[in-house]
Design goal:
By secondary structure, the chain is α+β, with helices and mostly antiparallel strands. Helix content is about 40%, strand content about 15%. α5 crosses α6 (about 165-180).
Length: about 325
């Protein structure tokens, strides 16, 4: 009797939830997604100001900065999404870990996206989809990366030996374990693996793909160097003019971004040699992105929720598309 009652109650709750979700989803097509606010930490070259921070720490700082700037009640947040490519195994779902460490309620769901060079954008779009399908009304979306603390591991033959070490030790003691470790190993196996900033299937780094594209579309080295100078000079001036005042949150009291080279000249940039396709490529260390540490956080809401809470939308998210290329 009790089991029958419980099954009936479960079916009723399931039907009710589905009806509510269906109704919300249809309604939300007329309730667009808005960006309410966004912040980021100062972007820095690797192994500089964030050398003692984990990626999860950077994402936590960004979330805290966003919450402080907006004054949002943490209980209003429905979901958190973060992008992260070079993952620390202890914080593989970095969105969840950062949200918890930022003091958000444990009941808030979270997941992490890995999509090279565009993970934060993918997180924002995934957050928008959460809102449009009625699964959330307030989402924090962002991303974090650090090249100052990448996971370095032993090569695979050594790892395989270590995984089965206990069995060998149980059978033959310390001597058995030693024989197990040494059997079949080669000198090339005795090394370390660092994360490759490359596609697993093709083995190519993003710089090679970009260099090839610049050749395809006829973008010269000279044009790229000119654009590089423009970018550095504009970024330096933006900091001087306070343009980033509400966008970049201080880290240890500073908003300095040490990758910006406002003093760069055409001569200094032009001296550098190709970094990817050698010797005739057009991408160099100067006109390419440097390895960057940093984090960001964006506050997304349905338009109705933003109005309910008294926020003025900065922008509307209408549509997006992600494509792959060779």
């Amino acid at each position: 009797m009790l089991s029958t009652t419980l099954r009936s109650a479960a079916r009723y709750q399931s039907r009710t939830a589905l009806r509510a979700l269906s109704t919300t989803t249809m309604t939300n097509h007329n309730d667009p997604v808005v960006i309410v606010s966004g912040v980021r930490l100062p972007f820095a070259m690797s192994s500089t100001i964030y050398e003692d921070q984990l990626a999860v720490d950077l994402q936590r700082h960004a979330i805290n900065g966003l919450m402080t700037q907006t004054g949002l009640d943490k209980n209003e947040v429905d979901y958190v999404i973060a992008g992260n490519v070079i993952q620390e195994v202890r914080t593989s779902n970095i969105a969840r870990e950062a949200a918890l460490n930022a003091g958000l309620p444990i009941s808030i769901g979270a997941h992490t996206i890995a999509q090279a060079c565009i993970s934060s954008n993918a997180a924002i779009c995934a957050g928008a989809e959460k809102i449009l399908t009625g699964h959330a009304r307030v989402v924090i979306a962002g991303g974090t990366e650090t090249f100052s603390d990448v996971p370095i591991r032993l090569k695979r033959p050594i790892r395989r030996k270590l995984v089965t070490m206990n069995k060998a030790m149980k059978k033959g003691g310390m001597l058995g374990a030693f024989r197990h470790m040494m059997k079949g190993l080669k000198m090339k196996d005795l090394g370390l693996e660092t994360p490759a900033i490359a596609n697993f299937t093709t083995g190519e780094v993003m710089g090679v793909s970009s260099d090839r594209l610049s050749a395809k579309f006829g973008i010269s080295r000279d044009e790229q160097d000119d654009w590089t100078l423009r970018s550095h000079h504009n970024a330096a001036k933006a900091h001087e003019d306070g343009f980033y005042k509400n966008d970049v949150i201080p880290y240890k009291g500073s908003t300095l971004e040490n990758g910006i080279k406002g003093e760069s000249t055409k001569e200094s940039v032009g001296k550098l040699k190709p970094a990817f396709i050698k010797p005739h490529g057009t991408h160099t260390a100067a006109n390419s992105s440097f390895l960057t540490d940093g984090a960001s956080a964006t506050l997304l809401m349905s338009e109705s929720k933003a109005k309910e809470l008294g926020y003025k939308p900065l922008a509307y998210l209408r549509d997006w598309s992600f494509k792959a290329c060779d």
